[in-house]
Structure formats: C-alpha cells, structure tokens
Amino acid sequence: MRRIGFYVFCCLLLAFFALPLLWLACAPFDRTPTITASLPDFTLQNFDTLFDNPYAMRSLGNSLLLAAGTGVLVVVFAALAAYALSRVRLPGRDALLYTLLLLSSIVTGTAAMVPLFNLAFELHLIDSQLGVILVLTGGLLPSAIFILKDFMDGTPRSYEESAQVFGASPLQIVRHVVVPLVRPGLATIAVWSVAQVWGNFLIPFLLLRSPEKSPAAVVMYTFYTEGGQPDLALISTFSLLYSLPVVLMFLLVSSRYGFRFHGGIKR
Questions:
Q1: How many folded domains does the chain comprise?
Q2: Domain holding 74: CATH number?
Q3: Rounded to the nearest 5 degrees, what angle is found at the Cα of 204, between the Cα atoms of 123 and 73?
Q4: Is residue 216 included in any domain, yes or no?
Q5: Mean pLDDT by 10 residues, the chain (267 residues)
Q6: Which of 87, 146, 163, 258 is the most exposed place for a label (fewest CB within 10 A)?
Q7: Cα dihedral: 174, 257, 188, 17 (round 10)
Q8: How many whole angstroms from its chain centre is CA 73?
C-alpha cells in the first residue's frame, strides 16, 4: 500500500505539471480555446491572426536580440573574470566573490529599478535595446562568475604552464586551453542567461518606450480583446512560438554536452 500510494502521488504530481503543457500544445489549434485543456476543434486560423499582428513576430526577433546579446556578454565577461579569480591570489578574493553573489541575490533588478532607471537616463539609454542588454548583463554576471569559477578551479594548471613554455599569451591560454576544457560550463551559463533574459518582463517594460523595440514578454501583455478580456487564441499561439526557441536551445546543448559537469578532461 505504501508503494501504491507513492506511485499515485507521483502520477498526480506529474499530471499537475503536465496539464499546462497539454493546454499549451492544444489551445493554439483550437477554434475557440478556453482555460481548460481539451481536444481542439482543429484550425490554423489562430496562427494567421498572430502573423497579422504588427508587433508579435517582431517582438520575437527583439527577444532573440536581447537574449543573444546578453548571453554573449555574460559568457565572455564571466569567463574572463572567473579565470582571473581562479588563478590570481588576491586578498579577500573569496569574500569579494561571496559578497557580490549575496548582493546580487538580495538587491534584485526589481529592488534596484529606480537607480537603474536613473543611470540609464543619464547615459541616454532609455528606449535603447543596448541599455536593456547592459542592465541585464550586470544583473546576471555575479552568479555567472560564481558558477564558472568552480569550472576554472577544476582545470589543471599544468596545461597552462605547457602553453606558457611555448610562448602563449594569457589571452591565448584562455582561448585555446581553458575555454575548450570548460565548454560545458560555458554552455550551462549560456542557456541559463538566455532563459533569464527570455522571460524577463519588468526591465524591458520600464526601459523601452517604442512598441517596435519591445520583446515578446512585453508584447504578450497587450493581447486583450476590445472588451478587456485576455485573447486566449493569440496568447496560446504566441506562447507556443515563444517557448520553442528556449526548448530547442536546451535540447541542442543537452544533446551536445549532456550537461556533464566534468569539463573537457577525460576521466
């Protein structure tokens, strides 16, 4: 009876998390979608309506731009900073790293929105996608550095010393020796940072003024009928397209690395 109860609990828990996904898979193809998951009255009219929206598909491109730009900056700067913190012995290095991680966890983007907005205003980055990328990058860097430092600590220094014997510069060592060894860590940080940016609503909503520059998370907020009710046909169809890039990226990275967190060193 204990085992049966355990399996029943697992099935109920699985169904609880599977129902929203089932709704997301069925509602876009339903002629009259509702908030309940059911067999759809099959139609593709919802996709035609979505493609006719002047901002829907453009917002997906804006989300790709923000996510890709932030992901590249986070991976590059986090890799350089993590390598420096791993190899250079500085007084109070660990305390500094933990302080940055703690402050980034406590003072989130929501709590720091007023000073961030003032900073973006002074730098003329309001209604600028570059400003959003820089703000998001700054918020993600402390955690990314903390995670990557563990990968850097696990790489043998003998490889770097061998490269130094042959006259490699520090940047060449990072590019040709360290980066290939910590590729799973870099892939993890890339997926994590892109996922964080992809679902971010508040910062683009406050810093961007032009609808044509808004990402998908902000544009989805505008999908209402003339009576003020959520347009489930548009929301469900857009949500399906909105979720595909992150899912595909996760599957691609997972199939390439399998999220094996032991770097590129053979064991």
A1: 1
A2: 1.10.3720.10
A3: 70
A4: yes
A5: 91 87 84 75 83 86 93 92 81 73 68 84 90 90 85 80 80 82 86 89 89 89 75 85 85 68 45
A6: 258
A7: 180
A8: 13
